[in-house]
Design a protein that fits this description.
The relative contact order is 0.11. The mean pLDDT is about 85. The chain contains 9 helices and no strands. It has one domain. It is about 75% helix and about 0% strand.
Length: about 270
């Protein structure tokens, strides 16, 4: 007897369907976001040809900024990838698909937190590497800077650890980064399936309201804005405690949003 909550073959069939629908409905937008680095490349070349008469591609700072901008655009676009669930016709058809609410939620989480970000990173960085290979004016690829930047950061931490007897590694900062990543993308996802109209605008308004409420809470509890430390060990302890607190709070918020998405899936009606 098949479980009503989760069945492996049923989930796999739905996930494949979800993947195909994602490609069909959002291929053009995904291509535009992934190709943003190439677009900026041609704009930079055209600008340099017009104003300096020289063929020159964008420098590393512009390309890094473009990559992060593409990530932000993808965040906003998350309000659309499942936004059709609030529509009567498409949303009702989605509810009739033979898969449990948990299976649909799990597919949504995999799609939002793994598939789409990886696709964006692979497409963007691969094209950036290709441009660096064919055009010497671009310089080294972003993958080169990621690799050497990581090594340089690791070497710097080794020196800090030797001088101050600390035990920091680049991985120390990974948990808070992953928690923030999950929170950001899931936030726009839940806004997309909760608001029927003006999804991006409403998401921005929620961010502003949340920021105001959070500031009030911090002021209410008397959070200091200036710190003074007598030695480095006190500063280290404060930094580690701050990172742990930020990771915990952000993880709780992200988990809460994920739970809210599941609740929305189970209770959505048209």
């Amino acid at each position: 007897m098949k479980s009503e909550v989760f069945n492996g073959s049923r989930f796999w069939n739905y996930f494949k369907y979800d993947l195909v629908q994602m490609w069909r409905n959002h291929m053009k937008a995904a291509m535009a976001i992934g190709l943003s680095g190439v677009i900026v490349y041609f704009l930079a070349v055209l600008f340099n040809l017009v104003f300096s008469g020289a063929w020159c591609g964008p420098n590393v700072g512009i390309r890094i900024g473009t990559f992060f901008f593409a990530g932000v655009v993808l965040e906003f676009y998350y309000t659309r990838i499942y936004g059709y669930l609030t529509e009567r016709r498409k949303g009702s058809a989605w509810l009739m698909i033979p898969a449990s609410a948990f299976e649909k939620w799990l597919s949504m989480m995999i799609m939002a937190l793994i598939v789409l970000p990886i696709v964006l990173a692979v497409v963007f960085l691969s094209l950036d590497w290709f441009m660096a290979v064919i055009d010497p004016t671009v310089g080294n690829s972003l993958l080169y800077y990621v690799h050497h930047g990581y090594n340089a950061f690791s070497d710097a931490l080794v020196e800090v650890n030797a001088e101050y007897e600390t035990f920091w590694t680049p991985e120390t900062f990974v948990p808070v980064m992953l928690a923030s990543f999950c929170f950001n993308y899931l936030f726009f996802l839940i806004c997309g399936i909760c608001f029927k109209k003006n999804k991006i605008l409403n998401a921005i308004l929620v961010i502003i309201l949340f920021s105001i409420v959070w500031s009030i809470i911090m002021n209410q509890f008397g959070a200091p804005t200036y710190y003074s430390f007598e030695n480095f060990s006190e500063a280290q302890g404060f930094i580690e405690k701050t990172l742990d607190t930020m990771t915990l709070i952000t993880s709780i918020l992200a988990a809460g949003i994920a739970g809210g998405i599941f609740y929305r899936i189970k209770t959505i009606k048209h």
